[in-house]
């Protein structure tokens, strides 16, 4: 299992955003903050992979091993969408609740 599902954020406030994974809506803690950091650091979707995103997201979310591939695909899809929205001057869909 990726991550232990625990979250000790201290003074850092993180958002929970819902994305579709394997046909189900799942709340992901810290996804917006991670994508924002990647984008700011110049990590376009070609420079990052699902494994890296999963590892980072797994630090604050409990992810079942038998769903890791589905999470990787969904996280990459959402990061590509986030980047496209930013490049097109739109508010990323992850900001919309």
Automatic annotation (TrEMBL):
Domain of life of the native organism: Archaea
Entry protein name: Uncharacterized protein
